[in-house]
Structure formats: structure tokens, C-alpha cells
Design brief:
A: about 425 residues, alpha+beta, 4-stranded antiparallel beta sheet, 15 helices, globular, B: about 270 residues, 2 domains
């Protein structure tokens, strides 16, 4: 549902019910006298109060409960919750468990990135309303996307039991290590998926991209052992280097009068971007050759500041995730035991991991018997919210010559550039349902 | 084809997907039908599905799938309009059928959650309850699970298009363990398991990874919850933990709700 209204000196572009994002949101752009006067990305997803309902639950319940925040990236929630609880209780997991977590997480990246690239984002570039329209003009591309997505889901189901809300993850590791033969059987589909991902990079690199550049402050985890997914320290393009707990301390979330969202800023001053563009800029040198060559062939430099080209970076990360999963599948040996014991007890812990759409941080305080006394969850979309609005302002200003319909599509696309997960963002402090 | 869906010949039936308070995981199950998605889109018109398409066609719709629970006054109004526009309405998932994990607010004091989370409770338009869709409008069929199983979803869509009842089992997870040859965790190893009182449909995933069922598909049709609760206590599970087991994603389902209240910490 879109409305464009031209009046003397005043023009409003509004999209109620933003499509092809996860969750319920809307956007509104108001132009006065040739200048973008007001921008709002509004979230009307009902709040679900996760931070309140976690209080009093046992520490080992956090992964399954927080997974229900988002059906698209449940593994991210499970992994950040496990990391936080293990830190709170002073537990370090075995390398075999860590490798299996990384493999499961690769499955989620493959599933989520292929969903976003093919079903949610690509239709914008080809003038279609959805992937079904896309299938009418390029059935092969959609089939390729669904093939990659199926492989991601297959990987998640093999390790986690199922792809939406996996059941095999626990604080300390896994309930049961998957059999070597079952994991090795993933190699063949992953090789195919890696080829498909390489074809994806070529395909999206040929799209037309609006000429927009932004000076983002990038924030991503960094892990000296490899392109960070399931662990690392928080780093930024401005030289920040801090652990998860320290990052939670310096991010200030401001409640604005418009109050559709708390706006996250580092030190209360700087908006920042997490997600594929940030990871690529900060950790791109750690990508395997196959992904770096694909990026170079697609014309990506070491840093990409055009948000519309995030689809190319996401495709490069698809190549990486398939390649990394293949490496882990071939090296897999059943971790024995599949989990280290985590005794209930007091503590404070923070855990951060890289959800497909950006940094996801959990922080918990546990009372003496190991029940959750307080919880804080910083979802990627809440952290990116301010930058998405800044992008919208820039894109709308640059696109004032477009017709209302074209400008509306362009603005929608600018939001989808960052793969927002509104279901995630709306469950926390930073989103209000406000009726004014 | 028989039934109301077929009453207009030569017209593809229309499907709408609606979201209320939820995680999107159940509607994602539709997009996870990688092998069937395009075929499905050929058999019916996907008229409204915001997660998938920016195009939306006005109702009436032959079949509406509804995800999520009712937690705001606005949504309590919106579901009435969805019902009115839908010939058949099927609820999908634990939020829509039992209130979901956000239904835990029903066990807290009124207003407590809003005050605990929000700096300005006066801005928040949220109910103190999270209720299933059937508490607001008549529902033609309920598909359970947190998340739903996508094969069951395809069966439900196929059945409604064909004008027949879906073939979805109402028995417990125990039968699925037997079918896949999983040795009983409860009997064999004394592991707390809600399988005997939980609706089948997942394929007994948890026992297969040495984990007791945690009831994400909600109560089976004939669930003797007090019997399993007594058994769990005899295994040494504390009363408060028995209560917790029943009080998760299907906490609002009557059988689970009653049992969790019976074992509440006192």
C-alpha cells in the first residue's frame, strides 16, 4: 500500500506495510520545498517483552527461548545466548564444539542470505514485485536461489534437527554430535551450492546500482582465526577494539520523542552499521581465495560504501559460507563429549556473534541459583536503525526527480539493502508501539 | 474438486498470509518449501503475503493462514477484518494457536512486563494478555508447532484446496519415537521428556538427539499431563521445574497451562 501526494511545496511518500522484510514496518518520507524534511522508519510490530519474560528462567533455557525472537536467524540467538551464559559461568567450550557451532551457523548464513538475495532483494533490481515475478523472467535464477537455500536448510537440519528453531543446541555445546557419515553427506550439495553462489555473485554484480556512497562507521566482530561468525572481539572502522561486555557498556540507546525506536549510538554520539558491508570492510582480507577472487571479479574494492551493492557483498559472503562449511564438513570429527557441563550458579556474561544481518549481543545477570536476573539483547536491526534512516534521507534527496512510484520503490529498496529483521528489533527496549 | 473453494470454476483460489505477534518462523516455513514453492504459486494466487511480495490484492480470500497471537488492541480489531475477508481461516504455529512464548505475560501481574521493559509505558499500546486467534474469531483449522512442520503445512493447504479435512495426527510424540526406533529416554534413561503428552508432527526430533521433548507442538489430543508430571517428580525433577517445562511456547494451551499452575512455585 503506497501513497504519494503532491501538493504545493509538499510531498509525502509513505509505505504502510513494508514488504519483503521480516516483520511489520512502514516508512515515511516527507519533502518540503525540494528538501527531505522528515524521514521515519516505523516499526509497528507488537512488542513481545523478551527481556522481561526471560527474568526468572534458568540459564539453560535462554537459547531456546531467545531463538523464538526470530524465525529467520534462530541460530544467531542460540549462539549469542550460549556465549553469554558460558562467559557468565566461566566455561570454555572444546575446539570440536566450536567448529560444529560454526558449521551450523554457516547453514544459517546460507539459508538467510539466499533468502534475502533471491526472494527479498533481487526483485527490486529487476522491477518485479516478488520472486514469482522474477521466476517469470529468469526461472533459472530463482531455481538456483532455492537450491542454495535448500542446502542451507539441509545443513541446519543435519546438525540442529530442524532449520527453524533447531533443537540440538545447548549451553556448553550440543545434545548429540551428528554422525560423521551424515555430515560428510553434506559435501556434495555444498560443492554445488558454492558453484551456485559464485554464479550468484556474477548475476548480482551485473545489476544497475544507484550511485550512492555513504561514510559509514562500520562495526563487526573480528576473530584472528578466520572471518568472524560465532566469536570475536568487537572492532570498528575507527579503531575500536572491545569485548562484548565492553561494547554493551559504550552503546547508548536514546529514546526519541518520535519514539518508534531507541536509536543506538556509540558513546551516545555515533551511529554505526553492522552486517555484511561492515564485516567485508573490516575482515575482507580473511576471506578465502575463492570468495576474494569473486569479489574482485565483481568489481568490489576492499571497502564497499554503496548500500545498494550490499547484495553483491552478501553474495560474496554466500560463497564464503559455502566454502567454509565445506572445509568444516571435510574436517569434521564427532566432538566427544558433545557438550561441556555448565553448572547453575551466579555470574554476569555477554556474548556477541554475527547474525546474517549484523551483530547480535546478549548480556545476562544470573542470580545465585543460575536463574536470569536481568537480560539485555541488542539486535542487529535496532543497531542499524539510525543508519537505515540516514540512508533513506540520502536516497530520497538524490531521488527527488523520480516519480512518486519510482521514489517509493527506491526508498523501499534502500531499507531492504540492510536486510532488516523487524521481528527481532521489535522485541526489545528500543521499539515502542506508539499511537499519536 | 468439491467444497466452497471450488464454487467459482476456472479461477485459481487465493491465498493470504497474515502476521500478528510472532517470530516469522511459521510463515518462513512456506518459503522453506523450496521444492514446492513455484508449483504452489502455480496452483493458487498468492494474493497477500507481505514477507514475500510488495503486491497485495484485496479480499475476499479463499484461504488465509494466520501466524501470531493477539497482543494489542489494534490487532484485536485487525483479526476481525481478516476473518471477514477469509472464506477459510487456518492458524499456524504456537503463537496463533496458544498465545506463544509472549503468552508468559499472562502469568505475571497486570502491567508488570510493560513497566519492566519500557521507559514510557504510557506510549505502549499493548494488552496484558497474549491470546490465540480462536479466542477472537472462529477458526476453521489449527496447525500446531513452534515452529510448524512444513510438510504438515503443505498437507493443510492441499486439503483445503481440495475441500477435505487435513490428515494431521493428534497422537503423541511417543508414536513417532517408536516409528523411528528411538529408545525411550524416559523409561530407558530417566530423562525428563514431555513426549507422552505432546502432539506429534515434528518427527520426534529431540529424543533422536538424546534430549527430552520440551513440548513445542503443544498438548496431544488426549494428554494426561498430571500423570507425566507425577512421573517427572518421581525422577527427581523439582516442582518448579515441572512448572517451567509446561510453561514455554505453548504455556497458554489449556492442558499445559493447568499443569504449570498446579506446580507453580509456592
Amino acid at each position: 500500500m503506497t501513497h504519494g501526494r503532491a501538493e504545493t511545496g509538499r510531498r509525502v511518500v509513505a509505505v504502510e506495510g513494508l514488504a519483503r522484510v521480516e516483520g511489520e514496518g512502514s516508512l515515511r518520507v516527507e519533502v518540503r520545498d525540494g528538501t527531505v524534511a522528515d524521514i521515519a522508519l516505523e516499526i509497528f510490530e507488537p512488542p513481545r517483552f523478551f527481556e522481561a519474560l526471560l527474568v526468572g528462567r534458568r540459564l539453560d533455557e535462554a537459547p531456546d527461548i531467545t531463538a523464538r525472537i526470530c524465525g529467520i536467524c534462530p541460530v544467531a540467538y542460540q549462539m549469542s545466548a550460549c556465549a553469554a551464559m558460558e562467559q557468565a559461568r566461566g566455561v570454555i567450550v572444546d575446539p570440536g564444539v566450536r567448529a560444529l557451532r560454526r558449521l551450523l551457523y554457516c547453514g544459517e548464513w546460507i539459508q538467510s542470505h539466499s533468502l534475502h538475495v533471491y526472494l527479498l532483494h533481487a526483485p527490486d533490481f529487476l522491477g518485479c514485485d516478488d520472486a514469482l515475478g522474477l521466476a517469470e523472467i529468469d526461472a533459472g535464477a530463482v531455481a538456483r536461489g532455492l537450491r542454495i537455500k535448500r542446502t542451507g536448510n539441509q545443513l541446519m537440519a543435519t546438525i540442529g534437527g530442524r532449520s527453524v528453531h533447531p533443537v540440538n543446541v545447548r549451553v556448553g555445546g550440543f545434545y548429540r554430535a551428528p554422525a560423521v557419515a551424515d555430515v560428510r553427506a553434506l559435501a556434495e550439495p555444498l560443492r554445488r551450492a558454492r558453484d551456485d553462489a559464485l554464479a550468484t555473485v556474477e548475476w548480482v554484480a551485473a545489476f544497475d546500482f544507484p550511485d550512492v556512497e555513504a561514510e559509514y562507521r562500520f562495526v563487526a566482530l573480528h576473530d584472528p582465526d578466520g572471518y568472524a561468525i560465532e566469536s570475536g572481539v568487537v572492532t570498528s572502522s575507527e579503531g575500536l577494539r572491545v569485548d562484548a561486555a565492553g561494547f554493551a557498556d559504550i552503546v547508548v540507546e536514546e529514546h526519541t520523542a518520535r519514539s518508534t525506536a531507541l536509536l543506538a549510538r556509540i558513546d551516545g554520539r555515533h551511529s554505526y552499521l553492522t552486517g555484511p558491508l561492515a564485516r567485508y570492510a573490516l575482515n575482507g582480507a580473511q576471506l578465502p581465495d575463492v570468495a576474494r577472487q569473486a569479489a574482485a571479479a565483481a568489481g568490489l574494492g576492499p571497502v564497499c560504501r554503496n548500500p545498494f551493492r550490499s547484495i553483491v557483498v552478501r553474495a560474496v559472503e554466500l560463497v564464503f559460507a559455502c566454502d567454509e562449511a565445506l572445509r568444516l564438513v571435510e574436517a569434521y570429527d564427532e566432538p566427544d563429549p558433545p557438550a561441556v557441563a555448565v553448572a547453575p550458579g551466579p555470574g554476569t556474561g555477554a556474548g556477541a556473534t554475527e547474525a546474517p544481518r549484523g551483530l547480535l549481543l546478549h548480556r545476562y545477570e544470573l542470580d545465585p541459583d543460575g536463574a536470569i536476573a536481568s537480560a539485555r539483547i541488542m539486535a542487529p536491526t535496532s543497531q542499524n536503525h539510525l543508519v537505515i534512516e540516514e540512508d533513506l534521507r540520502r536516497v530520497a534527496q538524490d531521488g527527488l526527480a523520480l516519480s512518486d512510484d519510482e521514489l517509493t520503490r527506491r526508498c523501499e529498496q534502500a531499507v531492504r539493502n540492510h536486510d532488516p529483521c523487524i521481528s527481532c528489533a521489535a522485541h526489545f527496549l528500543d521499539v515502542d508501539v506508539v499511537r499519536r | 474438486m468439491t467444497g466452497p473453494v471450488a464454487s467459482v470454476p476456472h479461477r485459481r483460489p487465493t491465498l493470504a498470509v497474515w502476521k500478528f505477534a510472532s517470530c516469522d518462523g511459521c510463515q518462513l516455513s512456506l518459503l522453506d518449501c523450496e521444492d514446492e514453492l513455484l508449483e504452489l504459486a502455480g496452483a493458487l494466487d498468492i494474493a497477500h503475503f507481505t514477507e514475500m511480495s510488495r503486491a497485495s490484492v484485496d479480499g475476499p480470500y479463499d484461504l488465509s493462514l494466520v501466524e501470531g497471537s493477539i497482543t494489542t488492541p489494534g490487532d484485536a480489531e485487525r483479526i476481525l477484518a481478516v476473518r471477514q475477508a477469509s472464506r477459510r481461516l487456518v492458524t499456524i504455529g504456537a503463537c496463533a494457536t496458544a498465545g506463544g512464548i509472549q503468552g508468559l505475560r499472562d502469568f505475571a501481574a497486570a502491567g508488570q512486563y510493560v513497566a519492566a521493559v519500557y521507559a514510557h509505558p504510557e506510549y505502549i499500546s499493548s494488552l496484558d494478555t497474549s491470546t490465540p486467534i480462536a479466542a477472537h474469531v472462529p477458526v476453521d483449522y489449527e496447525l500446531h508447532g513452534c515452529p510448524i512442520d512444513r510438510h504438515q503445512l503443505l498437507e493443510v493447504i492441499t486439503a483445503f484446496l481440495a475441500g477435505r479435512r487435513p490428515v494431521v495426527p493428534g497422537h503423541s510424540v511417543c508414536q513417532e519415537c517408536k516409528a523411528r526406533g528411538t529408545v525411550c529416554l524416559l523409561v530407558g534413561r530417566g530423562i525428563a521428556c514431555l513426549g507422552p503428552v505432546t502432539r506429534a508432527g515434528c518427527g520426534a526430533l529431540c529424543p533422536a538427539v538424546d534430549r527430552g521433548c520440551f513440548g513445542c507442538f503443544g498438548p496431544a489430543e488426549t494428554a494426561n499431563t498430571s500423570s507425566i508430571a507425577a512421573r517427572l517428580e518421581s525422577l527427581g525433577v523439582a516442582r518448579v521445574d515441572v512448572s517451567r517445562l509446561f510453561r514455554t511456547f505453548n504455556a497458554g494451551a489449556p492442558a499445559f497451562r493447568r499443569e504449570s499452575l498446579d506446580h507453580d512455585a509456592r
